[in-house]
Design a protein that fits this description.
Blueprint lengths: L10 H13 L10 H6 L5 E8 L3 E2 L3 H11 L4 E4 L6 E2 L4 E8 H32 L5 E3 L9 H11 L12 E3 L1 H7 L2 H10 L5 E5 L5 H7 L3 E5 L3 H11 L5 E4 L7 H5 L5 E3 L2 H4 L6 E7 L1
Parallel strand pairs: 6-11, 7-8, 8-9, 9-10, 10-11
Antiparallel strand pairs: 1-5, 1-12, 2-4, 3-5
Helix pairs in contact: 1-3, 3-4, 4-5, 6-7, 7-8
Amino acid sequence: MTNFTLPGFDLAAFVRSTLAEDLGEGLPGGGRDVTSESVIPADARFSGVMDSRDAIVVAGLPVAAAFFRGLDPEMEIEALVEEGAQVPAGTELMRLSGNARAMLTAERAALNTVQHLSGIATMVRDYVRAMDNPACTLLDTRKTLPGLRHLEKYATRMGGASNHRMGLWDAAMIKDNHVAVAGSVGEAVRRAVAAGIAEIICEVDRLDQIEPALQAGATRLLLDNMDPATLREAVALVAGRVPTEASGGIDLATIHAKAGTGVDYVSVGRLTQSAPAADIGLDFTPL
């Protein structure tokens, strides 16, 4: 748990800034946990158990550990389950013991993170199960909370999805507004090709846009808001020349039918945008 790293994500900075926000650093009278300081002796020690009150897919325990160790580097922490594990309600996730004030001060940040990330991972697993199609890959999107993209996309991987673009830098995605400015799907794609962009995803919402996008050099087609019958027709028109992705109007009720049309990918924004937090608690006992 001490070696948790994500490319592009600074865990130590995230812990510092999150705790600083909760402690009110830089604000008048801020920079302290007034409740713990006034009620809990400085040398008091607690043991604690984090457990799930829901059946969940676990994500975020290493980040929780970083919050606690950010305030008590000597805190003893034992993860009881693996990241990505599917566990029933009542499962103990983590045991810890250390300075009581540090535990209480870090508790909310640690729980918020694990609840949010496990909620995402749990929803993703539900979508993978509903899709029930190993030939099709579930993707997340850029519909993430500011500052949490790397963690939220990590959580989707724990649930069994793959990551779409990490940001605006790693692939071009040509959407309707880009097409409106360029004048046509083909012209928008040609401009991206001329700029030397290797991966060019082009959104199409009509069948007559498919051939111009392919002829111009698109490397993937995002088939937007198409019903299953239209998706099947689109996949036949593409004929395997580039990967295809279904997007828009996809939920637990529709994902199986859309994934079964022959598309290579299905992308779902609600995985990160709308996942409810998992019910996870942390109970302390004085030592």
